[in-house]
């Protein structure tokens, strides 16, 4: 009995198309560049995907509702600008002032999410259009705050510690990501609110009829997205020790790509945070391997797009096969051919 259960689990694990693609990519890059398969390089991969993965921990909530949040990059730029400007111009690089500045920057992300949640839950404006527009507004505010200049933050011990220190050889932002993932996983899988998220994303009208406070669910979801976007911007400014008007520009594209590759439905109601993390890891492995092979960065987006299409195609084929549609289609064609030959 235990052996059957074990074999089922292994089959289930390796039946995941994303894991298969990830393992194939890792094997290929290891053969081409043996230094790819080293502890230090895996730490570099984790460090590279940290910011996008933190954004995913918040943006997942909006996507599970059947929406989208393209302001994760704008929130990141705004929070980084607020933190650096306050630390350098108001708090004279003090550690106590840095803590206050970080809290204020996180508050900016929460307010941004609250705004989007209120508008979308009240007026039902398409999330794509609203967040696409307000993302530009946020970058406009960042330009005003920074004066379209680089704001250096080199003299603050706390932010430098966050951005450059390693515990047990692992950068501090990776631990921040791990904490965000644990919190997001618990909320989505072990709370009433998590069940409400999936219910509203699956069928909002039915959820309203069953008594679920859909407006509150939507508002909290976008506040979570805004908060995680702001936190990633703080981490980015700590790493770079500066803030700029174009910080985190277009990060939302990688966030949404990772979520989709991770198997989260764009229609809402299905998908897991761990799947989205796997999508981020897959993209990170691909970009790291291409760099090690010396392939110019101008080809990275092309390769990324091909991988995304390939993974989605495999996923749709697997779904069709499990549902019996693929077999029905091909067997139907064979049957038609046999009938045509027989009639002749």
Overview of this protein structure:
This protein is an all-alpha fold and 344 residues long. It has one domain: ABC transporter involved in vitamin B12 uptake, BtuC (Orthogonal Bundle), CATH 1.10.3470. 78% of the residues lie in helices and 2% in strands. The chain is built from 15 helices and 4 strands. The chain has helices spanning 2-14, 17-32, 39-64, 72-89, 95-123, 127-146, 157-164, 172-190, 192-202, 204-209, 214-240, 251-261, 273-292, 300-323, 325-343, and strands at 151-152, 166-167, 170-171, 242-243. The chain has a two-stranded antiparallel ribbon. Strands 2-3 form a two-stranded antiparallel ribbon. The longest helix is centred in the N-terminal third of the chain and has 29 residues, at 95-123. The N and C termini lie far apart (53 Å). Mean pLDDT is 86; it is low at 1-15 and 328-332.
